[in-house]
């Protein structure tokens, strides 16, 4: 990631932190994300939840959530790169 893109990402993360700290997260995310993007983020949360539950195969998750195999695989691969501590944190929700 280029330095400019990395800085933009960090600026975004800081803005999100501030919005959550001040109870303005929904307004901010509605401003920044289109309806389709919000739907896509919601779907990714469902995918991560299903992958963490480990009760369904990736194909079953794909069929249940009506999405592509590539989207499920991408989520699975990203989970593998996360720290054990972070994955445990996710599982506590």
UniProtKB/TrEMBL annotation:
<dbReference type="GO" id="GO:0045892">
    <property type="term" value="P:negative regulation of DNA-templated transcription"/>
</dbReference>
<comment type="similarity">
    <text>Belongs to the TrpR family.</text>
</comment>
<keyword id="KW-0238">DNA-binding</keyword>
<keyword id="KW-0678">Repressor</keyword>
<dbReference type="InterPro" id="IPR010921">
    <property type="entry name" value="Trp_repressor/repl_initiator"/>
</dbReference>
<keyword id="KW-0963">Cytoplasm</keyword>
<dbReference type="GO" id="GO:0005737">
    <property type="term" value="C:cytoplasm"/>
</dbReference>
<keyword id="KW-0804">Transcription</keyword>
<dbReference type="Pfam" id="PF01371">
    <property type="entry name" value="Trp_repressor"/>
</dbReference>
<dbReference type="GO" id="GO:0003700">
    <property type="term" value="F:DNA-binding transcription factor activity"/>
</dbReference>
<dbReference type="InterPro" id="IPR038116">
    <property type="entry name" value="TrpR-like_sf"/>
</dbReference>
<dbReference type="InterPro" id="IPR013335">
    <property type="entry name" value="Trp_repress_bac"/>
</dbReference>
<feature type="DNA-binding region">
    <location>
        <begin position="58"/>
        <end position="81"/>
    </location>
</feature>
<dbReference type="InterPro" id="IPR000831">
    <property type="entry name" value="Trp_repress"/>
</dbReference>
<keyword id="KW-0805">Transcription regulation</keyword>
<comment type="subunit">
    <text>Homodimer.</text>
</comment>
<protein>
    <recommendedName>
        <fullName>Trp operon repressor homolog</fullName>
    </recommendedName>
</protein>
<dbReference type="GO" id="GO:0043565">
    <property type="term" value="F:sequence-specific DNA binding"/>
</dbReference>
<comment type="function">
    <text>This protein is an aporepressor. When complexed with L-tryptophan it binds the operator region of the trp operon and prevents the initiation of transcription.</text>
</comment>
